[in-house]
Amino acid sequence: MHGPEDLTFAQVAGTLTEALGRPVAYHRLADDDVRAALRAAGLGDAAVEGIVGMTAGTRGRLPDPPRSALTTTPTTLGEWAYRVLRPLVG
């Protein structure tokens, strides 16, 4: 599902910061840091490598499926964040 505009991770963080009234930041983690965090959360080696493999495999790729009338919603991230996420995060 796509919103009406393409956003960078920094733009997403800014929009969420505004909607939630608290700082939200984007930090790209190295694969080894992700592995360590997942292991610390109790995941086994196969699950850890599967998750790291999926994230590595999607790096730098365009959204799939491409934006079209069928995959695009008129709701902006900000609208959704104020209406849905903000009440949940409180």
Blueprint (SSEs and pairs):
Blueprint: H1 9-20, H2 31-40, H3 45-58, H4 77-89
Gap between N and C termini? 25 Å
Order of helices and strands: HHHH
Cα gyration radius (Å)? 16 Å
Report the principal-axis shape.
globular
CATH architecture: Alpha-Beta Complex
**Low-pLDDT sequence parts:** none
Give the averaged pLDDT, no decimals.
Answer: 91
Number of spatially distinct domains: 1
CATH superfamily: UDP-galactose 4-epimerase, domain 1
Output the CATH topology: UDP-galactose 4-epimerase, domain 1
CATH class, named Alpha Beta
Portion of residues in helices? 40-55%
Instruction: Tell me the structural class.
Output: mainly alpha
What composes the largest sheet? none
Number of strands: 0
Summarize the structure.
This is NmrA-like family protein. The protein has about 90 residues and is an all-alpha fold.
Task: Write a structural description.
This protein has 90 residues and is mainly α. The chain has a single domain, classed as UDP-galactose 4-epimerase, domain 1 (Alpha-Beta Complex). It is 54% helix and 0% strand. It has helices spanning 9-20, 31-40, 45-58, 77-89. Helix 1 (9-20) crosses helix 4 (77-89) and helix 2 packs antiparallel against helix 3 (45-58). The longest helix has 14 residues, at 45-58. The model has no long low-confidence stretch (mean pLDDT 91).
